[in-house]
Amino acid sequence: MAAYVVRRLLQGVVVLFLISVITFLLINLAPGGPTSAVSLGRTAEEREAVLRQYGLDRPVLIRYFDWLGGVLRGDLGESYNQGLPVSSLLAQRMGNTLQLALTALTLTALLGVVLGVLSALHKNRWPDHLISSLATVGMSVPAFWLGIVAIIVFAVQLKWLPSSGIFTVGQEFSLADRLRHLAMPAGVLAFTLMPNVIRITRSALLEVLTSDYVRTARAKGLPERVVLLKHTFKNAMVPVIAILGLITTVLFSGSVVVESVFGWAGLGRLAIEAANGRDYPVILGVTLLVGAIVVVVNLLVDLLYAAVDPRISHE
């Protein structure tokens, strides 16, 4: 197992290296790159001074290896617009993204698995039809539209929840206030991602319920609860873990729309602000961080496979 983990981590390092090369070259060689952004609203002398300040007057490959050397030392560069270290900006936003992503993931996993199990156990009956209809609606509704509707209903009309932000400005930190701000963005993300878990759980459970060892367990007279928990549910979890791993990567890399709609100051919103402001060091930092998260999540998912299903071995 240790050798497998080391091998996967080395593969992850190679993946991150390729991501950094591609992203850096695309940013610096494509039209509208850093050198053109520097020229906006500046005289020729000011432009040359800024180019020298950020090292943009040197060849692209030299700049890349200088940047890579800084990354290996924990230095991701400095934001063009804010004048702050990129690492500190990422650290500020990472905690907010973790709160949103983990809350949405918890809701997605719990509700998705429970509803998927209910749908499978009541196949072709009204609970199954109701849950399938709910899943279809969740897959069809765009997250930005659902977010706007949620703001209109719960913030404007009912005034139950705040419309945006992470906390109430001017108020001391309280868990209740943070949860009120977290409810809508996490709920919208969970509602749009939960249908995938419902469908996978239902399909996996129905497949396992028709297997020979489940029929044998029932023929022995085991209680249905024991059959479901001991012989069925655990064996159906492998594809569910796979889809949850995919959803986790989406939550960290694809929650840009929801963060923008609800004014949630996370990594997604930071990436949008950096792209709009042509803050290329921040874009590079966000891309590299999200890539590292994806690598780690994929490794954890593979390890969970072996923990859930003893037939899977990484030796």
From TrEMBL:
Residues 94-305 form the ABC transmembrane type-1 domain. InterPro entries: BPD_transp_1_N, MetI-like, MetI-like_sf. GO terms for biological process: transmembrane transport. CDD domains: TM_PBP2. GO terms for cellular component: plasma membrane. It comes from the Bacteria. The keyword RNA-binding does not apply. The chain crosses the membrane at residues 12-30, 98-121, 133-158, 178-198, 240-262, 282-308. This is Glutathione transport system permease protein GsiC. It comes from Calidithermus roseus.
